[in-house]
Amino acid sequence: MATILYARVSTAEQNLAHQRVQAEAAGIVIDDMVADHGVSGVSTTLAERPEGKRLYDMLRRGDVLVVRWVDRLGRNYQDVTDTIRHFMRKGVVIRTVINGLTFDGATTDPMQAAVRDALIAFMAATAQAQAEATKEAQKAGIAAARESITAYRGRKPSYDGETLAQVLERHRNGAGALTIAKELGLSRGAVRRIVENPEAAQAALARWAKEGV
């Protein structure tokens, strides 16, 4: 039995290493890591990605697939639910670093299975909703940036679009600024600025992107 971490980042500028660091900090012993760098979770399914498709051959019954959160598998509801259920049918256990959830297809109790499936559906829907919210925020941010493109760009943001979406999601789920900051490697001030004015935070990203920095 092996424990395999699947990591993904959607842009070439993002770093994959922190996903393994987070997993190991949560006490998970990783035997192997499979990673897709600069690959979108919206436009490509796991099976279509260069490294993601390797998981379908690598994983065996009894293995554990670790992901930071289900959005690493994908940002599309149907794709994520199909992927998780496929691996569960193979006897693979899926674990998330964030929230410490475990999805195991071995349960025979109908109530436990119903709760598990409902949670899978909810998390997959949340992953898609995050992607759609980020897209809308980016549109609003770009529009705001274009209106004030001659203004000083300000300090370069310490976060990217994906991290911004994660901050907002954790805040909606009741996490405090300090907790979010520790989990995502941001300052508490940065978290507060994002939460208090997400449009301005996205606009800051757009201003820097506009200048090609």
From TrEMBL:
GO terms, molecular function: DNA binding; DNA strand exchange activity
Domain (Resolvase/invertase-type recombinase catalytic): residue spans on this chain: 2-149
GO biological process: DNA integration
Active-site residue numbers: 10
Gene3D superfamilies in UniProt: Resolvase, N-terminal catalytic domain
SMART domains: Resolvase (SM00857)
Keyword Signal: no
Keywords: DNA integration, DNA recombination, DNA-binding
PROSITE patterns documented for this protein: RECOMBINASES_1, RECOMBINASES_2, RECOMBINASES_3
Pfam families assigned: HTH_7, Resolvase
CDD domains assigned: SR_ResInv
Similarity comment: Belongs to the site-specific recombinase resolvase family.
Protein name per Swiss-Prot or TrEMBL: Recombinase family protein
Organism whose genome encodes this protein: Tabrizicola oligotrophica
